[in-house]
Amino acid sequence: MDNQNNSIQIQDLEKANRIFRKKLERCETERRQLETDIATKEFLLKKVICELENSQKDLEQRSQELENTLKSLHTMQAQMIQSEKMSALGQMVAGIAHEINNPVSFIYGNLSHITQYINDLMQLIELYHRYFPNPPTEIQTERKAIDLEFLEKDVTKVLDSMNSGTERIRDIVLSLRNFSRLDESEFKAVDIHEGIDNTLMILQHRLKATDKSPEIQVIKNYGNLPNVECYAGQINQVFMNILVNAIDALEELSAKRIDRKIKDNPRITIRTSVVDSQWVQIAIADNGLGIPESIKKQIFNPFFTTKPVGKGTGMGMAISYQIITEKHCGKLEFLSTLGEGTEFIVQIPIQHQVCEII
């Protein structure tokens, strides 16, 4: 009986064992499937994360590219507006110079004839004095009334003043015409000194003394420069921007009424020299307040200005930098010491070069 019971128990155990093994096999299969699913999901998740990271990087890169493009568009727009303004200004200045030149040339051309006529009349009067020393009373009275002796002396001075004045106007007109060469599309060999002098002539009114500021002295230390191949109008524009900034700095110094030594009266020093056989250098320095260290890196940035609203656009030095570095393959740098002044240094090749695009 016991053996039979044992046999039944053994059979039940074997059956239970088989069932357990089957369950265990199913669990193992399910475990493996689950591991496979988890691994697949982990792979997909990592792939998604990687794609998201790449997408984020692409978005950041595209965002930076769009930002750079927007800045470039703003800069280009400002440069186009500035160029259009300078072109319109050049046309207007050239037109005004032409209109002034016509009547001035007429006056200047006739002054020599008038001078000759008056000299002839003076000689005729002298002959009358010599051969008719005692004219009638009416003539003597009129002679005293017009003060003939003074008239004879002063008329020559008046003619000389008129001649000097018309020559001055002719020089100004010539400077305006030379400065307005903004539409020249080709490199030409030009006299750099002539461009500087023309620019100074146009700015002459800002160099004179006023009730708010003393006269600004201009010191020229010109070297023996050869003619330089450049866009004459654009180079003149650079000189204008630098000189205007120097004058503004000196006027700001005068406005703040800072006590300085006599030797430090407001002045602008212009030095030109040949760097080597291929380059020339133009340095324009002022003894103003100087540029603070905190803004030196922004001087050539578009739209950056320290001037009051309405007085500066912040494009002058940015466009000057582009003209020198991109249009003429040159260099535009500056040195500044706070409280002592600023010097802008322009270096351009003597002969036209093709700029390397970086």
UniProtKB/TrEMBL annotation:
Leading EC class: transferase
The keyword Coiled coil belongs to this UniProt entry's keyword annotation: yes
Keyword Metal-binding recorded: no
Domain called Histidine kinase: residue spans: 95-352
Keywords: Coiled coil, Kinase, Phosphoprotein, Transferase, Two-component regulatory system
Coiled-coil positions: 10-76
Pfam families, per the entry: HATPase_c
Domain of life: Bacteria
InterPro entries, per the entry: HATPase_C_sf, HATPase_dom, His_kinase_dom, HisK_dim/P_dom, HisK_dim/P_sf, Sig_transdc_His_kin-like_C
Enzyme Commission code(s) on record: 2.7.13.3
Name of this protein: histidine kinase
Lineage start: Bacteria, Bacillati, Cyanobacteriota, Cyanophyceae, Nostocales
